[in-house]
Amino acid sequence: MATTDSGLGGLAEDRALLGRTSTAERVADILRTRIAEGFFPPGERLAEDAIGKALGVSRNTLREAFRLLTHERLLVHELNRGVFVRVLAVEDVTDIYRTRRLVECAVVRTLAEPPHPPGWLDGLDAAVSAGERAARESDWRGVSTANIHFHRELVGLAGSARTDELMRGVLAELRLAFHVVDDPRRLHQPYLVRNRRILEALRAGEREKAGLLLADYLDDSRAQLVQAYGKLVAEATS
Question: Mean pLDDT in each 10-residue stretch from start to end of the chain (238 residues)?
């Protein structure tokens, strides 16, 4: 499957983000976002010439960006065929959730004691509200995006650039599985109220409660996604 027009459509606009310092890292940031948002779905071949032209970057720069994203496990290079958006195995999904549980629950458990600076939960609150608003509009892609933002904001409470970078890659990789399962409402809507409960527990200073809510949340989400994704993988290989 080659690069689709929907994937290329916004790249000309993203070209402005490159500015005067067009680097492979910036190109990788753009493509990572496009992959995470489903414009380049799992299994799609990334057309080097078309993407390079849309972004106005050299072949070498684009190939370096591809290399960076391959290292992040978002792309895969197939000999004599090209570069493709990676298709996860069921075991990948399980491992992603294992990593999420280790990191996210640790962040909640180790949050500083009150008092906290004003607005310390504003990002988390905004993500919860965005998800609820998207659900009211039946925008399930928007719900998924808001949910990912919720977890990135949650990890961001640790104030660690390294942890932020780790989770950015982990959550982007997770969305490769979400894009394959064609039932986004069932995957994401039930967790909106749970996001709100975690937020309110943190606002009340109840770290232990928030941690337990989060652990149960991740365990349930993993079980649900692994079941749905595993069924699709089994059907595709049968």
Answer: 64 61 81 89 94 93 95 94 96 97 96 90 98 94 91 96 93 92 83 97 95 97 94 82
The structure tokens 């004599």 sit at 80
Supply φ then ψ for residue 235, to 5 degrees.
-65, -35
In the numeric block, which tokens belong to residue 20? 């005067």
Residue with the two structure tokens 């070498």: 60
* Entry pTM: 0.84
From first CA to last CA, the distance across the chain in angstroms is 20
Residues 41, 43, 48, 50, CA torsion sign: negative
In the chain, the amino acid numbered 101 is R
pLDDT for the residue 67:
95
Q: What distances in angstroms separate CA 34 from CA 2, 8, 28, 30, 131, one per listed residue?
A: 15, 9, 10, 6, 19
| Lookup: tokens for 136 | 């009211």
Cα(170)–Cα(158) distance, integer angstroms? 16
Q: Which amino acid is at 202?
A: L
Of the candidates 63, 159, 82, 59, the one whose C-alpha atom is nearest the C-alpha of residue 117 is 159
> Please, what is the angle between helix 140-156 and helix 192-203, to 10°?
30
C-beta separation of 211 from 205 below 8 A: no
Which token pair is 195? Answer: 């996001």
Q: For residues 78 and 82, give the distance between their C-alpha atoms in angstroms, rounded to a whole number.
A: 5
pLDDT digits (tens, 9 = 90+) for 99-129: 999 999 999 999 988 888 999 999 999 999 9
Rounded CA-CA distance 220/85 in Å is 27
Cα distances (angstroms) measured from residue 18 to each of 24, 56, 83:
10, 9, 22
